Amino acid sequence: MKSSASTRIFEALEAFRIEIPSWGFANTGTRFGKFLQPAAATTTEEKFSDAAEVHRVTGICPTIALHVLWDLPQGLTSTKEISALSTGYGIQPGSINPNLFQDQTYKHGSFGNPDASIRKRALEHTKDSIEIAQRLNSRDISMWFADGSNYPGTANIRRRKAWFEDGLREAHSHLSPDQRLLIEYKPFEPAFYHTDIADWGMAIHLARTAGPQAKVLVDTGHHYQSQNIEQIVAWLLSEEMLGGFHFNDRRYADDDLTIGSIDPYQVFRIFHEILFYEWENDTEADIAYMIDQSHNLKGKIEETIQTVTIAQQLFAKAALVDHQAVSQAQDCCDLIGAESLLQDAFNTDVRPIIREWRQSKGLPSDPLKAFLESGYLERITKERSARNAQNVSSYA
Ligand code: PSV
Ligand code: MN
């Protein structure tokens, strides 16, 4: 007989899937330079292969997020190659990310550019991305804009807002009924004075203006220091506007560090708000859990496995919270009682039960160990090192 804790954890693990980003396997760095890794992926095929390896040992990463420019350089024509890779490696294309920031034309913005012909070009790329997603059976199109300005007075903030409203409304009209447009916000970087979609308030406004299939995407690194992210999550849930997450951890800015490496309790609190909402409303929140990290020093596949297993642990811990008891404690203002219910769940070692669950699924009980013993890393290091020694481009 399973204890109620293990039943809760088993149920939570059955439901928990997390998407990995193709760009997490490629060489990346900082604005100060890149340290190339001999085993980094240099082609889209290698990214699929690495993602398949992560899924093989964890069992919870069936999809890979794709960035159009980096993974589908020929746009719509590249969908044939992606479909073949998906079949070959048993990994489904996940969210599709248009690239509206890298091309020289986007120096002064994309949807918010004062030049109508550049706005049109950005919209065409977005429409192509929606069609790419349709051809690949991907549901979500993740919109992140680097648009903004560096100096006061240099941009008409209100007009740019209106251009964003128009562009997103138009993009939304091209979605098929089951697709979603996820709108990601970020308060700074690459722009340092104003960002056109700087916070969740702006994102929710634009999503509502765009149409019913537009939702907000919360990238955990896209907040100011010490901002209460779980409160934002709770509000978005209550407004039925939370579409998904880009998980990563941060110490200072948008650092894209391993999930939970700096503040695991933060991730736990986010998961708790979601599971508490689901319990209270007897519903399943339709949320895409995705990772958005770049590992310029840690081994890429190893780090992705580490991230996925930590996310799984934190989700399992959150599933241990006794919602009925929290609700009662909140109602009678039993502060220590309510808080302790969260702390007790967070402090429970869920790893033995997760190992049991993995065994019940025929998965390795220690995914990282299984990967390191598989010989895959040695093989790709040999195969890729020469190419990586020359390849200084990032992401693609
Ligand atoms: C921007 O910082 C971001 O979070 C967006 O989601 C991009 O698509 C991703 O990182 C990769 O640059
Ligand atoms: Mn992101």
Describe, in plain words, how this protein is organized in 3D.
A five-stranded parallel beta sheet has the order 6-8-10-11-12. It has a three-stranded parallel beta sheet with strand order 1-4-5. 45% of the residues are buried. Helix 9 links the parallel strand 11 (242-247) and strand 12. The protein contains 15 helices and twelve strands. Helix 10 runs antiparallel to helix 14 and helix 11 packs antiparallel against helix 12 (335-346). The radius of gyration is 21 Å and the shape is globular. It is 48% helix and 12% strand. Alpha-D-psicofuranose binds next to loops.
Describe this structure in a few short sentences.
The chain has 396 residues and is an alpha/beta fold. It is 48% helix and 12% strand. α8 (229-238) links the parallel β10 and β11.
Overall average residue pLDDT = 97
**Given the C-alpha coordinates, what overall shape results?**
globular
Annotation field: number of helices: 15
Sheet/helix structural class:
alpha/beta
DSSP strand content = 5-15%
Radius of gyration: 21 Å
- How many angstroms separate the termini? 50 Å
Order of helices and strands: HEEEHEHHEHEEHEEHEHEHEHHHHHH
Helical percentage: 40-55%
Question: What small molecules does the structure contain?
Answer: alpha-D-psicofuranose, manganese (II) ion
Number of strands: 12
Query: Could you describe the largest sheet, including whether it forms a barrel?
Result: 5 strands, parallel
**Biggest sheet: strand arrangement:** 6-8-10-11-12
Low-confidence stretches: none
